[in-house]
Amino acid sequence: MSKFAVIAFATAVMFAELTLADEPKPEMTFRNFAAVGDTDSVRELINSGVEVDAQNQFGKTALMLAVETNSMKTVVLLLARGADVNKRTVAGCTALTFAAENGHAAITALLLETGADVTARTRAGWNALMIASRYGYTQLVDQLLFVGADPNVADKGGQTALMYATENGHTDIVKLLAKAGADMNVEDKSGSTALTLALEKSNRELARILRSLGAESQIRNLEINANANLVVGD
Question: What pTM does this model have?
Answer without folding.
Answer: 0.84
